[in-house]
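Single-chain item
Fold in C-alpha coordinate form
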Amino acid sequence: SPITTTTYQVTGVDTNGCSNVDSVTIIINALPTINAGTDVAICIGDTAQLQASGGNGYLWTPSAGLSDTTIANPLAFPTVTTTYIVMGTDTNACEGTDTVVVTVNPLPTISAGLTDTVYMCAGDSVQLNATGGTSYVWTPNINITNNTIANPFVFPPVTTTYYVTGTDANSCSNSDSVVVSVFAIPDLSDTVICIGDSIQLTAYGPPGATFTWTPTTSLSNPNIANPYTSTTVTITYTVTVQDTNGCVDTTQITVTAEDKPNAAFTVETTPACDGILAIFDNTSTGADSYLWLFGDGSQSIEIHPTHIFAYESSFTTILNAYSANGCLDTAVFNISSLSFEEQFNLTPPSVLTPNRDGFNDEFRLDLPEAISQCTNIEIFNRWGMKVFESKGQNMGWDGRTTTGAEVPDGTYFYIVDVKGIVKKGSITLMR
Protein backbone atom coordinates (compact mmCIF):
# COMPACT_ATOMS: atom_id res chain seq x y z
CA SER A 1 0.00 0.00 0.00
CA PRO A 2 2.08 2.87 -1.26
CA ILE A 3 1.49 6.39 0.01
CA THR A 4 2.54 7.90 -3.31
CA THR A 5 2.04 6.91 -6.88
CA THR A 6 4.33 3.89 -7.58
CA THR A 7 5.11 1.66 -10.60
CA TYR A 8 5.67 -2.00 -9.84
CA GLN A 9 7.54 -4.35 -12.31
CA VAL A 10 7.18 -8.12 -12.46
CA THR A 11 9.50 -10.68 -14.31
CA GLY A 12 8.05 -14.07 -15.12
CA VAL A 13 10.05 -17.31 -16.00
CA ASP A 14 8.43 -20.42 -17.55
CA THR A 15 9.51 -24.11 -17.36
CA ASN A 16 11.76 -23.72 -20.31
CA GLY A 17 13.70 -21.01 -18.59
CA CYS A 18 12.23 -18.31 -20.76
CA SER A 19 11.32 -15.00 -19.06
CA ASN A 20 9.44 -11.78 -19.72
CA VAL A 21 8.70 -8.52 -17.89
CA ASP A 22 5.52 -6.37 -17.22
CA SER A 23 4.67 -3.45 -14.96
CA VAL A 24 1.70 -1.76 -13.17
CA THR A 25 1.38 1.78 -11.81
CA ILE A 26 -0.68 2.43 -8.65
CA ILE A 27 -1.86 6.03 -8.59
CA ILE A 28 -2.49 7.50 -5.11
CA ASN A 29 -5.19 10.26 -5.23
CA ALA A 30 -5.27 12.97 -2.60
CA LEU A 31 -8.31 13.05 -0.26
CA PRO A 32 -10.81 15.86 -1.00
CA THR A 33 -10.72 18.90 1.29
CA ILE A 34 -14.30 19.05 2.61
CA ASN A 35 -15.50 22.27 4.27
CA ALA A 36 -18.74 22.23 6.30
CA GLY A 37 -18.81 26.01 6.60
CA THR A 38 -18.46 28.30 9.59
CA ASP A 39 -20.19 27.63 12.88
CA VAL A 40 -23.53 29.41 13.20
CA ALA A 41 -25.89 30.50 15.99
CA ILE A 42 -29.68 30.60 15.72
CA CYS A 43 -32.57 31.38 18.01
CA ILE A 44 -34.74 28.45 18.96
CA GLY A 45 -37.45 28.06 16.36
CA ASP A 46 -35.34 29.63 13.60
CA THR A 47 -33.39 27.95 10.79
CA ALA A 48 -29.89 28.25 9.36
CA GLN A 49 -28.66 27.17 5.94
CA LEU A 50 -25.54 25.06 6.02
CA GLN A 51 -23.10 25.12 3.10
CA ALA A 52 -20.60 22.33 2.39
CA SER A 53 -17.96 22.51 -0.34
CA GLY A 54 -15.02 20.49 -1.74
CA GLY A 55 -16.91 17.42 -2.90
CA ASN A 56 -19.31 16.18 -5.53
CA GLY A 57 -21.69 14.42 -3.15
CA TYR A 58 -22.45 14.83 0.53
CA LEU A 59 -23.97 13.03 3.48
CA TRP A 60 -24.81 14.89 6.71
CA THR A 61 -25.17 13.32 10.15
CA PRO A 62 -27.08 13.36 12.41
CA SER A 63 -30.23 13.75 10.34
CA ALA A 64 -32.28 15.33 13.18
CA GLY A 65 -33.19 18.92 12.45
CA LEU A 66 -32.08 18.85 8.79
CA SER A 67 -34.26 19.43 5.75
CA ASP A 68 -32.13 17.06 3.55
CA THR A 69 -29.04 15.03 4.47
CA THR A 70 -27.80 14.47 0.89
CA ILE A 71 -27.33 17.99 -0.44
CA ALA A 72 -24.58 20.53 0.06
CA ASN A 73 -26.79 23.20 1.62
CA PRO A 74 -29.57 21.79 3.80
CA LEU A 75 -31.64 23.89 6.19
CA ALA A 76 -30.87 23.22 9.85
CA PHE A 77 -33.43 23.79 12.59
CA PRO A 78 -32.28 21.87 15.67
CA THR A 79 -33.89 22.55 19.04
CA VAL A 80 -30.61 22.10 20.93
CA THR A 81 -27.02 22.96 20.03
CA THR A 82 -25.86 20.30 17.56
CA THR A 83 -22.58 19.38 15.82
CA TYR A 84 -23.22 18.26 12.26
CA ILE A 85 -20.72 16.09 10.36
CA VAL A 86 -20.62 16.18 6.58
CA MET A 87 -18.86 13.49 4.55
CA GLY A 88 -17.97 14.64 1.05
CA THR A 89 -17.02 12.38 -1.90
CA ASP A 90 -15.05 13.53 -4.93
CA THR A 91 -14.97 12.20 -8.51
CA ASN A 92 -12.42 9.58 -7.52
CA ALA A 93 -14.78 8.27 -4.84
CA CYS A 94 -12.41 9.54 -2.22
CA GLU A 95 -14.03 10.76 0.99
CA GLY A 96 -13.38 13.60 3.38
CA THR A 97 -15.27 14.98 6.42
CA ASP A 98 -15.76 18.22 8.30
CA THR A 99 -18.00 19.49 11.11
CA VAL A 100 -20.06 22.57 11.82
CA VAL A 101 -21.66 23.57 15.11
CA VAL A 102 -25.19 25.04 15.12
CA THR A 103 -25.64 26.80 18.44
CA VAL A 104 -29.29 27.16 19.53
CA ASN A 105 -29.93 30.16 21.76
CA PRO A 106 -33.10 30.40 23.87
CA LEU A 107 -35.59 33.22 23.36
CA PRO A 108 -35.43 35.99 25.90
CA THR A 109 -38.19 36.29 28.50
CA ILE A 110 -39.69 39.66 27.68
CA SER A 111 -42.04 41.36 30.11
CA ALA A 112 -44.15 44.40 29.23
CA GLY A 113 -44.72 45.15 32.90
CA LEU A 114 -45.41 43.69 36.30
CA THR A 115 -49.15 43.36 35.59
CA ASP A 116 -51.19 42.51 32.52
CA THR A 117 -53.25 45.71 32.88
CA VAL A 118 -52.39 49.22 34.01
CA TYR A 119 -55.02 51.85 34.72
CA MET A 120 -55.10 55.55 33.97
CA CYS A 121 -57.56 58.41 33.94
CA ALA A 122 -58.66 59.92 30.65
CA GLY A 123 -56.29 62.72 29.67
CA ASP A 124 -53.44 61.42 31.82
CA SER A 125 -50.39 59.32 30.89
CA VAL A 126 -48.75 56.23 32.34
CA GLN A 127 -45.20 54.90 32.06
CA LEU A 128 -44.61 51.40 30.70
CA ASN A 129 -41.54 49.37 31.64
CA ALA A 130 -40.24 46.45 29.56
CA THR A 131 -37.53 44.06 30.78
CA GLY A 132 -35.66 41.01 29.52
CA GLY A 133 -34.03 42.42 26.39
CA THR A 134 -31.32 44.79 25.26
CA SER A 135 -33.50 46.67 22.76
CA TYR A 136 -37.23 47.15 22.34
CA VAL A 137 -39.91 48.16 19.86
CA TRP A 138 -43.45 49.05 21.03
CA THR A 139 -46.56 48.88 18.83
CA PRO A 140 -48.82 50.56 17.98
CA ASN A 141 -46.62 53.61 17.57
CA ILE A 142 -49.39 56.03 18.54
CA ASN A 143 -49.94 58.07 21.70
CA ILE A 144 -46.46 57.04 22.90
CA THR A 145 -43.41 59.23 23.59
CA ASN A 146 -40.79 56.86 22.13
CA ASN A 147 -41.54 53.37 20.88
CA THR A 148 -37.89 52.19 20.85
CA ILE A 149 -37.05 52.50 24.55
CA ALA A 150 -37.85 50.22 27.47
CA ASN A 151 -39.94 52.69 29.45
CA PRO A 152 -41.96 55.10 27.30
CA PHE A 153 -44.93 57.12 28.45
CA VAL A 154 -48.29 56.41 26.77
CA PHE A 155 -51.41 58.56 26.75
CA PRO A 156 -54.13 56.76 24.76
CA PRO A 157 -57.61 58.34 24.76
CA VAL A 158 -59.24 54.91 24.95
CA THR A 159 -58.24 51.53 26.35
CA THR A 160 -55.37 50.20 24.20
CA THR A 161 -53.22 47.07 24.15
CA TYR A 162 -49.52 47.82 23.62
CA TYR A 163 -47.16 45.10 22.36
CA VAL A 164 -43.40 45.13 22.97
CA THR A 165 -40.82 43.07 21.06
CA GLY A 166 -37.54 42.70 22.93
CA THR A 167 -34.24 41.54 21.45
CA ASP A 168 -31.32 40.14 23.48
CA ALA A 169 -27.55 40.07 22.91
CA ASN A 170 -27.90 36.99 20.69
CA SER A 171 -30.37 38.85 18.43
CA CYS A 172 -33.16 36.57 19.65
CA SER A 173 -36.55 38.23 20.08
CA ASN A 174 -39.73 37.63 22.03
CA SER A 175 -42.87 39.62 22.75
CA ASP A 176 -45.29 40.55 25.50
CA SER A 177 -48.24 42.90 25.86
CA VAL A 178 -49.91 45.14 28.39
CA VAL A 179 -53.40 46.61 28.41
CA VAL A 180 -53.59 50.30 29.23
CA SER A 181 -57.11 50.67 30.59
CA VAL A 182 -58.40 54.23 30.25
CA PHE A 183 -61.26 55.02 32.58
CA ALA A 184 -64.14 56.18 30.39
CA ILE A 185 -67.79 55.31 30.77
CA PRO A 186 -69.79 54.49 27.64
CA ASP A 187 -72.18 57.05 26.22
CA LEU A 188 -75.85 56.50 27.01
CA SER A 189 -78.54 56.43 24.34
CA ASP A 190 -81.41 58.89 24.70
CA THR A 191 -84.75 57.27 25.44
CA VAL A 192 -88.48 57.91 25.67
CA ILE A 193 -90.75 57.58 28.69
CA CYS A 194 -94.51 57.27 28.42
CA ILE A 195 -96.12 59.66 30.87
CA GLY A 196 -97.39 57.65 33.80
CA ASP A 197 -94.74 54.95 33.48
CA SER A 198 -91.28 54.57 34.98
CA ILE A 199 -88.12 53.43 33.22
CA GLN A 200 -84.73 52.33 34.47
CA LEU A 201 -81.60 54.27 33.61
CA THR A 202 -78.32 52.35 33.55
CA ALA A 203 -74.78 53.73 33.73
CA TYR A 204 -71.67 51.58 33.54
CA GLY A 205 -68.53 51.63 35.64
CA PRO A 206 -65.87 49.28 37.06
CA PRO A 207 -66.34 47.42 40.35
CA GLY A 208 -66.28 49.77 43.32
CA ALA A 209 -67.22 52.86 41.29
CA THR A 210 -69.57 55.52 42.69
CA PHE A 211 -72.42 57.12 40.75
CA THR A 212 -74.05 60.55 41.07
CA TRP A 213 -77.07 61.54 38.94
CA THR A 214 -78.17 65.15 38.51
CA PRO A 215 -80.72 66.59 38.65
CA THR A 216 -82.35 64.24 41.13
CA THR A 217 -85.85 65.08 39.83
CA SER A 218 -88.14 62.02 39.68
CA LEU A 219 -85.26 59.61 40.39
CA SER A 220 -85.70 56.67 42.74
CA ASN A 221 -82.08 56.94 43.94
CA PRO A 222 -79.52 59.37 42.47
CA ASN A 223 -76.51 57.50 43.90
CA ILE A 224 -76.76 54.11 42.23
CA ALA A 225 -75.87 52.91 38.75
CA ASN A 226 -79.42 52.10 37.67
CA PRO A 227 -82.11 54.33 39.19
CA TYR A 228 -85.70 54.52 37.98
CA THR A 229 -87.22 57.75 36.71
CA SER A 230 -90.91 58.59 36.47
CA THR A 231 -90.50 62.04 34.97
CA THR A 232 -93.53 63.59 33.29
CA VAL A 233 -91.49 66.17 31.40
CA THR A 234 -88.54 65.88 29.04
CA ILE A 235 -85.33 66.04 31.05
CA THR A 236 -81.57 65.55 30.56
CA TYR A 237 -79.76 63.66 33.31
CA THR A 238 -76.00 63.82 33.88
CA VAL A 239 -74.28 60.89 35.60
CA THR A 240 -70.82 61.25 37.14
CA VAL A 241 -68.85 58.06 37.73
CA GLN A 242 -65.70 57.84 39.86
CA ASP A 243 -63.57 54.70 40.05
CA THR A 244 -61.45 53.47 42.96
CA ASN A 245 -58.38 55.21 41.51
CA GLY A 246 -60.10 58.60 41.68
CA CYS A 247 -60.71 58.83 37.93
CA VAL A 248 -63.91 60.69 37.02
CA ASP A 249 -66.02 60.66 33.85
CA THR A 250 -69.48 61.95 32.99
CA THR A 251 -72.11 61.32 30.36
CA GLN A 252 -75.68 62.42 29.71
CA ILE A 253 -78.99 60.93 28.70
CA THR A 254 -82.10 62.77 27.58
CA VAL A 255 -85.43 61.25 28.57
CA THR A 256 -88.25 62.51 26.35
CA ALA A 257 -91.70 62.38 27.97
CA GLU A 258 -94.50 61.36 25.59
CA ASP A 259 -98.25 61.16 26.09
CA LYS A 260 -99.73 57.71 25.90
CA PRO A 261 -102.31 57.01 23.20
CA ASN A 262 -105.91 56.37 24.19
CA ALA A 263 -106.99 52.86 23.22
CA ALA A 264 -110.71 52.38 22.62
CA PHE A 265 -112.98 50.33 20.41
CA THR A 266 -116.52 49.12 19.97
CA VAL A 267 -117.61 45.76 18.62
CA GLU A 268 -120.69 44.59 16.78
CA THR A 269 -121.39 40.87 16.74
CA THR A 270 -123.62 38.84 14.47
CA PRO A 271 -124.04 35.09 14.13
CA ALA A 272 -122.42 33.47 11.11
CA CYS A 273 -122.14 29.92 9.87
CA ASP A 274 -118.60 29.46 11.24
CA GLY A 275 -119.13 31.29 14.53
CA ILE A 276 -119.86 34.71 15.93
CA LEU A 277 -118.70 37.38 13.47
CA ALA A 278 -117.23 40.32 15.40
CA ILE A 279 -116.79 43.62 13.57
CA PHE A 280 -114.42 45.92 15.48
CA ASP A 281 -114.51 49.69 15.22
CA ASN A 282 -111.22 51.16 16.44
CA THR A 283 -111.86 54.57 18.03
CA SER A 284 -108.36 55.00 19.55
CA THR A 285 -106.61 58.38 19.44
CA GLY A 286 -102.93 59.26 19.44
CA ALA A 287 -101.89 55.83 18.21
CA ASP A 288 -99.69 54.94 15.26
CA SER A 289 -99.99 51.15 15.19
CA TYR A 290 -102.15 48.45 16.70
CA LEU A 291 -102.03 44.86 17.85
CA TRP A 292 -105.28 42.98 18.44
CA LEU A 293 -105.18 39.87 20.62
CA PHE A 294 -108.46 38.03 20.20
CA GLY A 295 -107.95 35.61 23.07
CA ASP A 296 -108.15 32.46 20.97
CA GLY A 297 -104.50 32.47 19.89
CA SER A 298 -105.01 34.65 16.82
CA GLN A 299 -104.11 38.31 16.36
CA SER A 300 -104.25 41.16 13.86
CA ILE A 301 -102.50 44.45 13.13
CA GLU A 302 -105.38 45.89 11.09
CA ILE A 303 -107.03 49.10 12.25
CA HIS A 304 -110.61 47.80 12.00
CA PRO A 305 -110.43 44.01 11.89
CA THR A 306 -113.15 41.40 11.80
CA HIS A 307 -112.89 38.05 13.52
CA ILE A 308 -114.88 34.84 13.86
CA PHE A 309 -115.27 33.52 17.42
CA ALA A 310 -116.35 29.97 18.13
CA TYR A 311 -119.90 29.38 19.37
CA GLU A 312 -120.45 28.52 23.02
CA SER A 313 -117.23 30.15 24.23
CA SER A 314 -115.88 33.20 25.99
CA PHE A 315 -112.88 35.25 24.91
CA THR A 316 -111.16 38.41 26.09
CA THR A 317 -110.14 40.69 23.24
CA ILE A 318 -107.26 43.09 23.93
CA LEU A 319 -106.36 46.09 21.79
CA ASN A 320 -102.79 47.34 22.22
CA ALA A 321 -102.45 50.84 20.78
CA TYR A 322 -98.91 52.15 20.24
CA SER A 323 -97.73 55.68 19.62
CA ALA A 324 -94.91 56.41 17.18
CA ASN A 325 -92.45 56.36 20.11
CA GLY A 326 -93.74 53.06 21.45
CA CYS A 327 -96.02 54.30 24.21
CA LEU A 328 -98.79 51.82 24.90
CA ASP A 329 -102.39 51.90 26.02
CA THR A 330 -104.73 48.93 26.23
CA ALA A 331 -108.46 48.40 25.86
CA VAL A 332 -110.22 45.15 26.79
CA PHE A 333 -113.58 43.63 25.84
CA ASN A 334 -115.07 40.26 26.79
CA ILE A 335 -116.99 38.35 24.11
CA SER A 336 -119.22 35.41 25.08
CA SER A 337 -121.60 33.38 22.96
CA LEU A 338 -124.22 30.67 23.35
CA SER A 339 -124.28 27.49 21.34
CA PHE A 340 -125.30 27.80 17.71
CA GLU A 341 -128.71 26.24 18.32
CA GLU A 342 -129.40 28.47 21.29
CA GLN A 343 -128.85 31.53 19.15
CA PHE A 344 -131.97 31.08 17.00
CA ASN A 345 -135.45 29.68 16.81
CA LEU A 346 -134.95 26.87 14.32
CA THR A 347 -138.58 25.74 14.48
CA PRO A 348 -140.55 27.16 11.53
CA PRO A 349 -144.24 28.15 11.67
CA SER A 350 -146.77 25.31 11.47
CA VAL A 351 -149.34 27.07 9.27
CA LEU A 352 -148.85 28.69 5.87
CA THR A 353 -151.52 30.97 4.33
CA PRO A 354 -149.99 32.33 1.09
CA ASN A 355 -152.82 34.74 0.28
CA ARG A 356 -150.52 37.78 0.16
CA ASP A 357 -152.08 39.48 3.14
CA GLY A 358 -148.65 39.94 4.73
CA PHE A 359 -149.26 37.34 7.39
CA ASN A 360 -147.86 33.78 7.17
CA ASP A 361 -147.39 34.24 3.45
CA GLU A 362 -144.09 32.31 3.47
CA PHE A 363 -142.55 29.32 5.20
CA ARG A 364 -139.26 30.85 6.38
CA LEU A 365 -136.85 30.52 9.31
CA ASP A 366 -136.18 33.65 11.35
CA LEU A 367 -132.39 33.71 10.79
CA PRO A 368 -129.75 36.43 10.22
CA GLU A 369 -128.71 36.90 6.64
CA ALA A 370 -125.20 35.56 7.39
CA ILE A 371 -126.69 32.16 8.30
CA SER A 372 -128.42 31.77 4.96
CA GLN A 373 -125.38 30.28 3.23
CA CYS A 374 -125.45 27.28 5.57
CA THR A 375 -129.26 26.82 5.49
CA ASN A 376 -131.04 24.18 3.35
CA ILE A 377 -134.83 23.75 3.14
CA GLU A 378 -136.74 20.87 1.53
CA ILE A 379 -140.60 20.60 1.28
CA PHE A 380 -142.36 17.31 0.48
CA ASN A 381 -146.02 16.47 -0.16
CA ARG A 382 -147.79 13.60 1.55
CA TRP A 383 -146.52 11.12 -1.07
CA GLY A 384 -142.86 12.07 -0.45
CA MET A 385 -142.48 14.07 -3.62
CA LYS A 386 -140.20 17.08 -3.21
CA VAL A 387 -142.11 20.19 -4.21
CA PHE A 388 -139.61 22.82 -3.09
CA GLU A 389 -135.90 23.09 -2.29
CA SER A 390 -133.63 25.93 -1.22
CA LYS A 391 -129.89 25.28 -0.70
CA GLY A 392 -127.39 27.71 0.70
CA GLN A 393 -129.98 30.41 1.19
CA ASN A 394 -132.89 31.00 3.51
CA MET A 395 -135.42 31.35 0.72
CA GLY A 396 -139.05 31.38 1.90
CA TRP A 397 -141.62 28.92 0.49
CA ASP A 398 -144.81 30.63 -0.70
CA GLY A 399 -146.80 27.49 -1.58
CA ARG A 400 -145.41 27.16 -5.08
CA THR A 401 -143.12 24.57 -6.63
CA THR A 402 -139.70 25.51 -7.84
CA THR A 403 -141.27 25.93 -11.30
CA GLY A 404 -143.79 28.48 -9.95
CA ALA A 405 -146.93 26.28 -9.88
CA GLU A 406 -149.20 26.58 -6.84
CA VAL A 407 -149.58 23.44 -4.80
CA PRO A 408 -153.00 22.48 -3.38
CA ASP A 409 -153.97 23.08 0.21
CA GLY A 410 -153.06 20.30 2.58
CA THR A 411 -150.35 19.01 4.87
CA TYR A 412 -146.71 19.19 3.76
CA PHE A 413 -143.52 18.03 5.40
CA TYR A 414 -140.27 19.92 5.75
CA ILE A 415 -136.63 19.10 6.44
CA VAL A 416 -134.59 22.10 7.57
CA ASP A 417 -130.77 21.78 7.86
CA VAL A 418 -128.96 24.72 9.43
CA LYS A 419 -125.22 24.09 9.83
CA GLY A 420 -125.85 20.37 10.32
CA ILE A 421 -128.72 20.89 12.77
CA VAL A 422 -131.70 19.11 11.21
CA LYS A 423 -135.32 19.89 12.05
CA LYS A 424 -138.23 17.91 10.63
CA GLY A 425 -141.94 18.55 10.88
CA SER A 426 -145.20 19.27 9.08
CA ILE A 427 -146.92 22.43 7.96
CA THR A 428 -150.52 23.03 6.96
CA LEU A 429 -151.07 25.09 3.82
CA MET A 430 -154.41 26.97 3.58
CA ARG A 431 -155.31 29.64 1.08
